[in-house]
Amino acid sequence: MYPGRIFTMAGEQYRYLENMEDGNHLIIRNHRITHISAAGQSIEGVVATWYRDLRQETRDIVAPVATEFVRGNHQVLFNQAEWVDGISGWILDGELRPDVAADITKVVSGGTKRAFGLSLADVQRLSGEGKAFPNMASRRAANPGVHHLRTPHVGNSMVAIGPDGELRNWIANGERLGNDAIRPALIIHQ
Hints:
By secondary structure, this protein is of the alpha+beta class.
C-alpha cells in the first residue's frame, strides 16, 4: 500500500499514512468524528469510545502504543511562524521544540492497543512530496472542517488541521470539545 491511499476496512474508510516496518502500518480515519458534546467529553474519551465501537476484527490487528503520550506544548503562534516554501499552514520551517518533536507515535511493546489523535510532530513528518500528505489539501478529512491534533498550543488552544488542510491553533476549553472534531488514528499489524 502507498502513502495517502484511501481504503475501506471492516466498514470504515481510512487513509494509509506510513509503513512503520515489522508489519506495522499507521492509518487514520478518513472522516472526522463531529458534533462532539462539550458535556464532559475529552479528546481521549471520544477516541476511546470510537475504538471500543470498532469491529472486533479491526481491534484484533491494532498494535500497542504508549499508554499515555508525553505531549509537548507548541508555543509558536502560527500567524508568526516561518513556513516551508512560504506556504502558510503547510510545514513549519525549522525545528520543533524538543518536547513537541519527541511526540512521535510508534509501536510500544507492553503498551496499550488503542486509537489516538496524531501529534504535530507526526503531521510534520508525514507531510511533503512522496508522503501521506503530499500537499495541504490531502490533510483534509473526507468531511472537511477543523479537527484537533493531540498537541496543545498556547493558552487554551490545541494544534489543529483547518478546513483547507492547514496547520492552525484552535481554541478549546482545555481538552473539552464543543462543535469540534477529532480524526482517530491506529497502528495496525499485518
